[in-house]
Design goal:
Pfam families: DctQ
Number of helices: 7
Membrane topology: Multi-pass membrane protein
Order of helices and strands: HHHHHHH
Largest sheet: none
Distance between the termini: 23 Å
Function: Part of the tripartite ATP-independent periplasmic (TRAP) transport system.
Main location: membrane
Number of strands: 0
Oligomer: single chain
Subcellular location: Cell inner membrane
Number of domains: 1
Helix content: over 70%
Length: about 180
């Protein structure tokens, strides 16, 4: 069950990452054209950077589901099969622990209960916690950075899900993608 949910989530992550990759290309081309005609749109650079950050985190999470993460296997390749399998499970456990810490860090950083305790008043929240996460604007887009940093929640959830699925049932496979 967890494996199927993980596979579905990984497909969504890859689809969104692909969409973001296309948007980055379009944004960079738009930037080239507008600069060439002497009418640069400065917000395009910032939006392309944020799209690339989201794409990277989504792709990294999906890569864990499919077992396509970068790995140094010089030690595990030399191990007998039972020990190599044990080492792989240990790595899956460490990934899951990392993901759980990421969820915890996001919880501490975003402080949703503290925000709710202050009646979702960001001014009162900032005054009490000195945490400006909900009010800090982006440089040129003028949107709140919370929308950019929200990828950390998505990444932490995805890595937790994929790490748990890998630990319980082995590496995820999806015939549409793993070919």
């Amino acid at each position: 069950m967890v494996g199927r949910i993980s596979a579905a989530w990984a497909r969504i992550e890859l689809a969104l990452a692909a969409l973001l990759a296309v948007s980055i290309t379009v944004l960079i081309l738009l930037n080239v054209v507008t600069r060439a005609v002497g009418s640069a749109l400065y917000w395009v650079d910032e939006l392309a950077i944020y799209a690339m950050a989201w794409m990277t985190f989504l792709g990294a999470s999906a890569g864990l589901h499919y077992g396509h993460a970068v790995a140094v296997t010089v030690v595990t390749d030399a191990l007998p099969t039972p020990f190599a399998k044990l080492a792989a499970k240990l790595v899956d456990l460490l990934v899951l622990i990392f993901a759980l810490f990421m969820l915890w860090f996001c919880w501490r950083w975003f402080s949703p209960l503290e925000l709710a305790r202050h009646g979702f008043d960001t001014g009162a929240f900032q005054g009490a916690t000195f945490n400006f996460i909900y009010a800090e604007p982006t440089t040129t887009l003028g949107i709140r950075k919370i929308w950019v940093w929200g990828v950390m929640w998505v990444f932490a959830f995805g890595v937790t899900l994929h790490g748990l699925a890998n630990l319980l049932g082995g590496r995820g496979t999806d015939p549409e993608v793993s070919a």
